[in-house]
Amino acid sequence: MQVKAKAKYIRISPRKARLVVDVVRGLDVNAALAKLSVLNKKATSFVEKVLNSAIANAEHNNELSRDNLFIKEIRAEDGPTFYRWFPRAHGRATPKRKRTSSIYLTLEEKKPTKSKKVEKATDIETVQVSEEDSIEKIEKDAKADSSKGIDSKMSDDKSGSGQKGKSGLKNMFRRKSGM
Fold this sequence. Notes:
The structure is a single chain. This protein has 2 domains: 2-111, CATH 3.90.470.10; 114-154. α2 runs antiparallel to α3. The longest helix has 33 residues, at 116-148. The protein has 6 helices and 5 strands; from the N terminus they run βαααββββααα. The protein is α+β, with helices and mostly antiparallel strands.
């Protein structure tokens, strides 16, 4: 099973981020975290955050084991470039490009495990049966209330916005001073 995570609009150039991304590509999750902790680059913190996010997604959403995961795909792509202006001689200005990047990460299992969602599907079916029983009780209660006349009292109420006469329009557009 594949688990994905991404970080977009990171304020580092993709060229610098690719230096770190290339180091951890294809590694075991624990080995990748160990290498990132030793590496002395600015992009290591961003890659580590994305990796930890993907691990948390795998453990929480898909109930996968951390020891069974490896980095199948990781890439750093260009994000939008911010243009700022730098003053130059004779009153001119030169563009200063502040580049951003996006990091996309895909984790996969070394040995495929049985999906836990299949087991949860059987639990949902048993819950639905118990909900059907409660729906039948609600329908019986509604029939009992209608036989008592609760619904008929609500339909006889003619004051309010449900009235379709001229007096309803007068009440709607009446000024406060004319009261």
